[in-house]
Every structure is written in structure tokens, then in C-alpha cells.
Amino acid sequence: MTVVYSLKNVSKERLIDGVGFRLLVPNIQIHAEENIALIGHSGCGKSTLLDMLALILRPDKSDSMNLHPVHGDSHDVARLWQGDRYSQLSQIRKQHIGYVLQSGGLLPYLTVRENIELPRRLLDLPDDDSIDSISKVLGISRQLDKLPGLLSAGERQRAAFARALSHRPSILIADEPTAALDPITAHKIMAVVMEVIRGLKITLITASHDWAHVYKMELRTLKQEAKALEGGKIYQSSFSD
Fold first, then answer.
1. In CATH, what number is assigned to the domain containing residue 20?
2. In what order do the strands lie in the sheet with 19-31?
3. Structural domain of residue 216, as residue ranges?
């Protein structure tokens, strides 16, 4: 099976006056259509790793970092960062990656339909039945003409998933997307999303501190290991296969 992500000795530091944390990724390979969960406590670097996988955050160091979208060319991401190829990284991200934030991240001044259409418009994709189709599957077809502020928390997250999936990306990244929802609503939303991504053959990478919820979804887990360095001033966190 195709390897979508391949990372070796990738690191990112967030230090202020010598105090903070260092994220290390010794070795990770993620295959096409895998469902992956990053498991760890709050503040351990899950969001930092997701941002690097989403080509939003530049790693400080990397022996290798490669992205191989199922429907697209392979990319040496480490080399693109080193060459300051920001526009190319942005284009790769827009075309191949969908990202769902914990807060949803919908633009409040656009209707739900306009929010969901954004990725397709950025890529100049033609109008078709994609928006209506995915909105129906996710149970928000009646909310398309409303502003996000008029939706419930669960409806907003469904809309955020619809937006992230509307352009049929190879990869869906979700940063604790149901953390603000009650357990029943969270389970219902993720069950529907899992059904959608399996049908579209999309690779899912999500982060969670809810271990029981992840195990119920039968995701492959990348667990975090941590230790204190330099007299406890630096918290080092690592994720690997």
C-alpha cells in the first residue's frame, strides 16, 4: 500500500528563555487509507505534529519528510521548507489536505454553504452536487443557508468536516474535533465521518486525549513518550511507529 507520509528525525522546539518543549518524530510512516490517532495528554505536541503534517508549521530539523498524495506527485517537504517554497507548500495543502480544528474554524460572516464551498473555490473546481451530497450525508442539508452562529456545536463540527472534505482531499487531519461535544454527539459525528472517509478512500490523522473513544473507533495509535530534560526546564515529547 502507498506510503502517504514518511518522516525521519523531524523536530520542532517551542522554547521561551530556555523553558518549553521539544517535539521529536524519530520515524513515522502512514499508509494510504489508514486511520491514525495521536494519543497523549494536553500540551504534549499533538497539535504541533498535526500542523507539520498539514504543511502549516515548519520543522526546525528533519532528516527526511515526504508526502505522497494518492492522486498527485510525491513531494520532498523538508526540501520545500528549506527552499522557502511557501506558495508550492500552500498549493499542495489546498489540493491534498483537509483540516478540521477543535473549534471548527468556520468563517462567521459566510453561510454554511459558502464555508463548505471555500476549498473548491480556491482550487477553481466546477460546481457540482458535491456540497449537497456531503451535507446530506453529514446531516446538515437544512442548515446550508444559515450563518454558523445559528448552528449547534455539533452542527458546526459537521459543517467543518463537510468543508474539509468538499474537495475530496487525499488526507483529512482533525485536531481533537469532538473535544467540545458531549460523548453521545461526538460518537455520532465520528461514526458518520468514518463512514464517509472510508467511502472516499481518504487517510485520516486525528489527535485525541480520549483514549477510550479512540480505541472504540479502532484507529491505529501513535502514542506519545515524554521525559524531562535539563533540570525539568524542557519537556521532550516524541511520537513514532
1. 3.40.50.300
2. 75-76, 61-67, 3-16, 19-31, 234-239, 220-229, 35-39, 203-208, 171-175, 97-100
3. 3-239
Q: Please count the structural domains in the chain.
A: 1
Q: Could you tell me which of 34, 27, 35 has the C-alpha nearest to residue 3? A: 34
Least Cα distance to 7 among 111, 77, 103 occurs for 77
Q: From CA 97, how far away is CA 202, in angstroms rounded?
A: 10
Q: What is the pTM of this model?
A: 0.91
Residue 95's beta-bridge partner residues?
none
Q: How far is CA 30 from the centre of its chain?
A: 13
- Model pLDDT for residues 138-187, shown as the tens digit of each residue: 999 999 999 999 999 999 999 999 999 999 999 999 998 888 888 888 88
Amino acid at 230: E
